[in-house]
Write a structure and sequence with these properties.
Layout lengths: L1 E7 L4 H6 L3 H9 L10 E7 L2 E8 L6 H7 L8 E5 L1 H6 L5 E8 L4 E2 L9 H12 L4 E16 L2 E14 L2 H10 L11 E5 L7
Antiparallel strand pairs: 1-3, 1-4, 2-3, 5-8, 5-9, 6-8, 7-8
């Protein structure tokens, strides 16, 4: 698995339009892979004063076209790709990690039902979803939630930061690669890990 970070120049009009459209983001990410059929997990992170397109994929992306349209033209390349296998392999049973997750609990909905943005409900969904996917949530902070318009419907999303403990190595490896929730066709479900907490409880 590969984890890629690409810096987005938010002062460019094209980038501002990109960040308003989940459908355009999906097309941009797909275009980074041969054939354009691969649908990797992705999200946009704010790190410091910059926004970064973060992609988790089985293949190494080629972001030359995206760089020309949305990156910093004076900086080449504007992205870095890392081997993420070591992180996934280290996430063994009992290990503790910080995580950041962007997921869609409900996928596409015909209407934007505000009840699905309730913080208590969302946090319960995360805790309950963790159990069959090989981890338990130790702490969580709901950073954002809302709706993204996609093809005339509304994509439900939420973002958390927190800490987790791996309870089943194989199940956790699987969900790390396929994503959590039901929004994977639109790139949702990416959970990245930080080694801050070490490996043993």
């Amino acid at each position: 698995m590969f984890l890629t970070h690409m810096a987005l120049d938010i002062n460019r009009r094209e980038t501002q339009e990109l960040l308003k459209s989940q459908a355009l983001l999906c097309l941009t990410v797909r275009a980074a892979f041969a054939g354009g059929n691969l649908v990797p997990l992705f999200r946009v992170d704010q790190i410091g004063s910059r926004q970064w397109l973060v992609i988790l994929s089985r293949l190494r992306p080629s972001l030359y076209v995206a760089h020309e349209r949305y990156g910093y033209l004076g900086v080449f390349p504007s992205w870095e790709t890392f081997d993420y296998d070591d992180v996934i392999e280290d996430a063994t049973e009992g290990s503790i990690w910080r995580f950041e997750l962007n997921a869609s609990p409900m996928g596409l909905c015909p209407v934007a039902d505000e009840r699905l943005l309730d913080e208590t409900w969302l946090n319960r969904w995360l805790r309950e979803s963790a159990v069959p996917n090989g981890f338990e949530v130790r702490s969580q902070h709901l950073m954002d939630r809302g709706w993204l318009e996609v093809d005339g419907k509304f994509l439900h999303y939420a973002r958390w930061r927190g800490s987790l403990r791996v309870t089943d190595t194989q199940m956790f490896e699987a969900v790390s690669m396929r994503g959590l929730g039901v929004g994977q066709p639109w790139g949702e479900g990416l959970m990245t890990l930080s080694r801050t907490y070490g490996v043993a409880e």
